[in-house]
Each structure stands twice: as C-alpha cells, then as structure tokens.
C-alpha cells in the first residue's frame, strides 16, 4: 500500500471513530458544473434576502482560494435523526435543531480529525468548514460519493436517507479520491408534491426565498401575508421534503448525546409554546441553533401560524 492510500485509510478510520456517518474525498479543484447553476440561482433571486449568498462567488467554487495549495476536500456526514419527535399537538421545529447547535459539535470533531492528521501523517495545513463559510457542501459530498443531490436539493444516500449534517476539511495533502454515485430519485416527485409553499420550483431547483426554513429562520422582517396558512405549523425550519422522501425510511437514530433535546422540548404543546417565557426559552434552547432567532423571532413565527 502506497503512502497516499495509507493516509486515506487512516483518515477514514479516524473519521468513523469520531462518530461520522461516512467520509468521502475529492480532488480540490474548481467546480465547473456548479458555477453556471449557482450564477443562475443568484440571478433569479432565489436566495431572497440572504445577501451573503452573493459574496465570495469564486471561493464557493474553488477550494484553493480558501486553503492555499489545497489538494483534497474531505467531506463528512454526521447523523442527527432523532429517536423521538415532538408531540402531535405542537408547533414544529426542524429535527436538526433539537439538540446542541451542530456548528459546535462538528467543529470540535473536525479539529480533532485535523489534529490526528497532523500527528499521524505530518505537517499538513488545512481548515475545517461547517456551513458557515462559502463552501458548497452538498456538491462536494456528492462529488466524494457520499450520495446524490435529490430533487429537493438535499444530499441523499440509499443507506441513510438525508437527515445528517455535511462538513469538510480542506487540506494540502494528496489522497485517494472517491467517485460520485448515481441518482436514485427516479420518477418520484414526493418532495415536490408535498412542499407546502411550492418552493421546489422544478426537480433539483429550490427557490430559497419560498422555503419555510428561509421564512422562519433567515428572514428578519415581517412575514409576507401571501404565505399565511401555508406553513403547516412549522415555527422553526421545515422537514417536509425530507419526511416524505422514501429514502428516509432507512434513517436510523443518531448516537450523539449532544444532539438529544432538552427533556421538556418534545412534550411541549401549542399552549406551552403560546405561553413560552424568556426563561423557558433560554432553558430549552441553551445551546441550540434556535437561539439565532431569539424568543422575539420565535414568537413572530408562532403568531403567524395562528388564524
């Protein structure tokens, strides 16, 4: 076994030990196919008020602009599918936000992986990315063979569906590269048919400015009256396109204790949410991604769901 293969094996074994669902590796190079798609998506204003999507266009497509002399993009998946979900009589929260903010959890694991690489392979330079930097996570994960991008624009895997986070290490080390997998959406249109706001405007194209997640998390101003009664009780994020996807029959509960929700969260009813106080909000979402929206943002969303 040559050094490149040995290094690749070591990294994948350590990723598994750290709890990652899977690990795939791509050559760090310009994303030719994604460039025109991203440009068209932005030109059509499908990013809505998410102005940050317009920034760093070149960096989004070229990892060598993020890490000098980078050779490899290591893509990693971390499962967040819960073993229990909220009670029926509740305003809904996207499952990814049940526990501790994933940015902290994954960043810590990525730092450990990078440290392992330096200790066991040598003087390797690299950076860790968890969706807070201009990196096209799903494109790299698909390129690395971890799944295909489905009609709802999420990464899908035959083994585990789509309830996982995607993260990357971009490093200046040559490794063995994986091959993309094939698309297994077939003629299925379950996600397109089920989207409450018709945000999936055509297969594989999501108009972000129509997505419930965009409205309930990203949009800071008043919610548009045209969307009244279309949110299907989602107060933070939305999982509809994932919930209806046949491949998510194969989702298995995660084994990351930090992703477990606060004990009170799953049993809260609509009445409880209507009466939520600042203290309760802080207690339940102490380290959660929901803190981004603040209690005022959550209340805005809840009020919008009422008739």
TrEMBL record:
Q: Does the keyword Ubl conjugation apply?
A: no
User: Where, by residue number, does [4Fe-4S] cluster 1 bind?
Assistant: 185, 188, 191, 245
Which InterPro entries does the record match to this protein?
4Fe4S_Fe-S-bd (IPR017896), 4Fe4S_Fe_S_CS (IPR017900), QueG (IPR004453), QueG_DUF1730 (IPR013542)
Keywords of this protein's UniProt record, alphabetized? Answer: 4Fe-4S, Cobalamin, Cobalt, Cytoplasm, Iron, Iron-sulfur, Metal-binding, Oxidoreductase, Queuosine biosynthesis, tRNA processing
Q: Taxonomically, which superkingdom? A: Bacteria
Active-site residue numbers? 131
Q: In which pathway does it act?
A: tRNA modification; tRNA-queuosine biosynthesis
Identify which cofactors the protein needs according to its UniProt entry: cob(II)alamin; [4Fe-4S] cluster
Q: Tell me which residues bind [4Fe-4S] cluster 2.
A: 195, 211, 238, 241
Per the entry, the cofactor note is: Binds 2 [4Fe-4S] clusters per monomer.
Presence of the UniProt keyword Cytoplasm in the record: yes
Query: Where along this sequence does the record place binding of cob(II)alamin?
Result: 60, 131, 155, 166, 213, 238-239
Give the EC number(s) listed in the UniProt record.
1.17.99.6
The cross-references to Gene3D superfamilies, in alphabetical order and at most eight, read: 3.30.70.20
Q: Name the chemical reaction catalysed here.
A: epoxyqueuosine(34) in tRNA + AH2 = queuosine(34) in tRNA + A + H2O
Primary site of residence: cytoplasm
Domain named 4Fe-4S ferredoxin-type is located at 173-205
GO molecular function term, any single one? epoxyqueuosine reductase activity
Q: Quote the subcellular location field of this record.
A: Cytoplasm
What does this protein do, in the record's words? Catalyzes the conversion of epoxyqueuosine (oQ) to queuosine (Q), which is a hypermodified base found in the wobble positions of tRNA(Asp), tRNA(Asn), tRNA(His) and tRNA(Tyr).
Per the record, the similarity remark reads:
Belongs to the QueG family.
Q: Which NCBIfam families match?
A: tRNA epoxyqueuosine(34) reductase QueG
What is known about its subunit structure? Monomer.
| Annotated protein name in UniProt | Epoxyqueuosine reductase
In the record, what lineage is assigned to the organism producing the protein?
Answer: Bacteria, Pseudomonadati, Bacteroidota, Flavobacteriia, Flavobacteriales
């Amino acid at each position: 076994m040559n050094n490149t293969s040995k290094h690749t094996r070591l990294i994948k074994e350590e990723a598994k030990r750290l709890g990652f669902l899977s690990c795939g590796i791509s050559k760090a190079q310009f994303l030719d196919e994604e460039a025109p798609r991203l440009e068209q998506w932005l030109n059509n204003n499908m990013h809505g008020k998410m102005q940050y999507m317009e920034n760093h266009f070149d960096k989004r497509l070229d990892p060598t602009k993020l890490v000098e002399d980078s050779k490899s993009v290591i893509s990693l998946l971390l499962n967040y599918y819960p073993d229990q979900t909220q009670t029926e009589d509740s305003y809904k929260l996207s499952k990814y936000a049940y526990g501790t903010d994933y940015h902290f959890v994954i960043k810590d694991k990525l730092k450990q992986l990078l440290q392992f690489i330096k200790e066991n392979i040598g003087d390797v330079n690299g950076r860790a990315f968890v969706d807070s930097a201009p990196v096209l996570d799903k494109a790299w994960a698909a390129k690395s063979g971890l799944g295909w991008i489905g009609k709802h624009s999420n990464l899908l895997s035959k083994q585990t569906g789509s309830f996982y986070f995607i993260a990357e290490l971009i490093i200046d080390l040559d490794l063995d590269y994986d091959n993309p997998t094939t698309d297994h959406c077939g003629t299925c249109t379950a996600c397109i048919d089920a989207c409450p706001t018709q945000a999936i405007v055509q297969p594989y194209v999501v108009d972000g400015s129509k997505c419930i997640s965009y409205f309930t998390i990203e949009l800071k101003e008043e919610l548009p009256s045209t969307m009244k009664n279309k949110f299907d009780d989602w107060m933070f994020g939305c999982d509809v396109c994932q919930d209806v996807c046949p491949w998510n029959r194969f989702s298995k509960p995660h084994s990351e204790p930090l992703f477990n929700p606060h004990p009170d969260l799953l049993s809260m009813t609509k009445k409880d949410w209507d009466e939520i106080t600042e203290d309760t909000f802080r207690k339940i979402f102490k380290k959660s991604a929901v803190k981004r929206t603040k209690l005022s943002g959550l209340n805005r969303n809840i009020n919008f769901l009422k008739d």
